[in-house]
Amino acid sequence: MAVALMWGLNFIAIDASLQHFPPMFLVALRFALIAVPTMLLVKRPDVPLRWLIGYGLGFGTVQFLFLYWGMAAGMPAGHASLVLQASGPFTMLLGATFLRERVTGAQLAGVLVAVGGLAVVGWQRAEHASVVPFLLTLAGALGWAIGNICNRQARAADPLRLTLWMSVVPPLPMLALALLVEGPSRIAGSLTGFDEPGAVGAVLGLLYTVLIGTILGSGLWTWLMSRHPAGVVAPFSMLVPVVGMTAAWLILGETVTVPEMLGGVLVVGGVLLGSLRRRTTILPKPDLDVQPAGARG
Question: Which residue windows are transmembrane per the record (predicted)?
Answer without folding.
Answer: 20-42, 49-71, 77-99, 106-124, 130-150, 162-181, 201-224, 231-252, 258-276
